[in-house]
Amino acid sequence: MHSNQAKLMPGNNYNCDPATPRSRLERLLRERELRKSNRLLQLNEEGRDGNKESELFGNDSYISEGEILGLPNEEEVLEGVAGARSLVDGWQWQDGRSSKQRLLVVANRLPVSAVRRGEDSWQLEMSVGGLVSALLGVKEFEARWIGWAGVNVPDDVGQRSLTKALAEKRCIPVFLDEEIVHQYYNGYCNNILWPLFHYLGLPQEDRLATTRSFQSQFDAYKKANQLFADVVNRHYEDGDVVWCHDYHLMFLPKCLKEYNNKMKVGWFLHTPFPSSEIHRTLPSRSELLRSVLKADLVGFHTYDYARHFVSACTRILGLEGTPEGVEDQGKLTRVAAFPIGIDSDRFIRARELPQVQDHMKELKDRFAGRKVMLGVDRLDTIKGIPQKILAFEKFLEENPDWRNQVVLLQIAVPTRTDVPEYQKLTSQVHEIVGRINGRFGTLTAVPIHHLDRSLDFHALCALYAVTDVALVTSLRDGMNLVSYEFVACQASKKGVLILSEFAGAAQSLGAGAVLVNPWNITEVAASIGYALNMPADEREKRHQHNFKHVTTHTSQEWAATFVSELNDTIVEAQLRTRQVPPLLPIKTAVDCYSKCSNRLIILGFNATLTEPVDALGRRGGQIREMDLKLHPDIKEPLKKLSDDPKTTVVVLSGSDRNVLDNIFSEYNMWLAAENGMFLRLTSGEWMTTMPENLNMEWVDSIKHVFEYFTERTPRSHFELRETSLVWNYKYADVEFGRIQARDLLQHLYTGPISNASVDVVQGGRCVEVRAVGVTKGAAIDRILGEIVHNKGMKAPIDYVLCVGHFLAKDEDVYTFFEPELPPESPPAARATLANAVRTSLPKFSPCKSGSKASRYKKQRSMSTLEKKENNHESGIPWQPTPRDRISLHEGSSVLDLKGDNYFSCAVGRKRSSARYLLGTSDDVVNLLKELHIILNHQVDL
Ligand SMILES: O=P(O)(O)OC[C@H]1O[C@H](O[C@H]2O[C@H](CO)[C@@H](O)[C@H](O)[C@H]2O)[C@H](O)[C@@H](O)[C@@H]1O
Ligand SMILES: O=c1ccn([C@@H]2O[C@H](COP(=O)(O)OP(=O)(O)O)[C@@H](O)[C@H]2O)c(=O)[nH]1
């Protein structure tokens, strides 16, 4: 997916250059071309100048245990090939300078670990691992690495001298003391997150001890992440890209954004991200997800991992998953797959180096007459080493002819040796290898050569090159770069790769490899036989497939793509933000309120005045009863405001009359139920504008559909109102609810509503079917008329505050009050502009009595005027029409809104036609409290 994605240049301005691609895809394609041509240029130059291998990495860039990293000062580990004509060569900063973008790579490990040789002298050794290998290939940025040097340095002299030594390699150390390393790295990272993310579950052996240590390890994890953040913050410069890596640093995005919200932050996971069912077992599941979501871009090796992450966010946090990523209150975190690669040229060229040739010769001589099988893994439970060896044993058992003709070389690099699980694995593997060698070995040869150590780069390349069959049997693996490196070194031999289907690499190399389920020892044993006997033409074909992939999906591509996508994401977020209304300026709204004398406050009910629930529809973490409850802190200010003679309060809701009666009867206000179809002053009777002959025959058939889906969607429910039906799934499983909603709509459109005069309105977690034309905006003119009439208003309304969490269709209530609407505004809104004049009587009329059920099919009372205008029998959609005009007795306008005394405000939405936004009902409470305080103040004066 990533190869056709492209870069946004720093300082880029989309609009000034007509040749500048506008869409993301255009940019991606152009960048891809650029990268290709730069790569060709680079190869040509390297061809002319001879082999640059030594310039890049020195002869010792891959250093085995104990070897000293002696890179020349000017050729930094991170700087890469001097002649590498990077993609960013052409980058233009806004001041016209050409420059590489600064990249701060933050990973648990630096690419080097330090060994102390004296009070202030250090040896730097290359760290081994896929992440290090991949990032060494990144040459396109002016990169700095920030990470732990793998050593405890308690003293100042040591810290200063190490910082200096590392600075020469463009590395910046984070100092972690022993206790933190123990709790954070050995404990939380490697004993909890690592096994969990690889589907091995949480540690179980000693549940009590685990539970006890969990909290302290998690605290240490957060503390360590904060220490990383402190170092990043100290070195950060405006415009830098900060790229956080891996499960060690899931808390980092949050720490960084809290410090500086403008920082460009990306986070990439090198391991699998497990199914949400696994992730939800983790006690700190939500905190970790929320923190990662603070990043601008979140990347994974495969689409599956990205999908699992999004699904964890929707299922555990109740957030919205979109094709772009995860959305939380309008803030999008982009989530995408960026499969890593290797610096393939380096491996291809290495094969020609004399040191490698020498190693190859040695190996060929040593194993002459036998086929070589190879395993290269860190000695980690996820790598499936015991399973691999057992499968090899089974193969030997079943194929006696092969016993003296094949050898398995297993390189098992010691890793995380302080973690008990890893110690146990070492003895387990030794025990199995010993047993098999005892069983099938001879005086002169053993079938398995097992090495508990790492090899240097040249030895490793030689081994890859002479191998006939590589065996990668990871039980789970983020990607597995060993499989890539093997393919890169097989240009002449064209050996076979047996690859676990549970390694991320299976998705990219699946076409050329022999895929196996590593748990199925019989299958792996059979695959070994198949691979050893594979005819040359099939090997050739498979190899070409994989070779092409490995050489085109390199680590350079990977990093360049990630960073360019990150740059892009930021620009897109800025563009989106510009379309988002600003937060309500509460002080201005309150000041203005205090200066006006005939004030109208229109309030929604659901999610505006109700007790807050989280994104999963839960209050205080638990699913409670589904009835809406008034926010406990709203009562006092609401009472005070509704009692104020200069303020008219209207609650305008989709809920039915009973709900509003139950909740608001003690207040002195107007209640508009069912989106304004019913109106009542709390001291008076309900009135309606329901047309008497409104056709409601559709109700029954839709009710059946809603019942059907309610029965089949746990925790969903539906409400049967007088003018609408609402199926609500906000307490149901989000994903299932959404699928069911889609299905439900399909049923509706093809059946019950195909000929009915209804509108289908989709909310975030609900589907509503209502009589056609019913909206809050359509009702507001009649409500206003009734209020003016009832109050016998003499002076115009000079202040309107309209606050609600309305469905998009009902947002016409905001535009209704806009003093200057463009000509293309909807007729309902245009017809009722503030200066509209109405002389007729209000159109609400008393409701007829009768049971709720019987009312559905009954015709409702309405004024003679409405009867004329809303003829539904004739099938004409029922729309409020610009017929009558609202005015005061003298004929002057009922509304005197000059623009600065009108405040429309959407609650809990990011996109809205309201002028302003508020976050939650808590903010509404604060607003009403401020108004209340002003009222008190006025009374005191
Ligand atoms: O630093 P260590 O604790 O010794 O572990 C070494 C690295 O192991 C993990 O590597 C992963 O990243 C590779 C590259 O993306 C991927 O191919 C592999 O499947 C992963 O296991 C770990 O994620 C790194 O952080 C460690 O440095
Ligand atoms: O003796 C060794 C064995 C392995 N590696 C490197 O370690 C990395 C292992 O990466 P992989 O993605 O396969 O797994 P990880 O260890 O990161 O889980 C590869 O780049 C290998 O070249 C190494 O440098 N020396």
From TrEMBL:
GO biological process terms held by the UniProt record: trehalose biosynthetic process
CDD domains according to UniProt: GT20_TPS (cd03788), HAD_TPP (cd01627)
Keywords from the UniProt entry: Glycosyltransferase, Transferase
GO CC list: cytosol
Region (Disordered): 1-21, 845-883
Catalyzed reactions: D-glucose 6-phosphate + UDP-alpha-D-glucose = alpha,alpha-trehalose 6-phosphate + UDP + H(+)
TM annotation in the entry: none
Keyword hit for Cytoplasm: no
EC number, as in UniProt: 2.4.1.15
GO molecular-function terms, A-Z: alpha,alpha-trehalose-phosphate synthase (UDP-forming) activity; trehalose-phosphatase activity
A Pfam family it matches: Glyco_transf_20
Membership in a protein family: In the C-terminal section; belongs to the trehalose phosphatase family. In the N-terminal section; belongs to the glycosyltransferase 20 family.
Record protein name field: alpha,alpha-trehalose-phosphate synthase (UDP-forming)
Organism whose genome encodes this protein: Quillaja saponaria
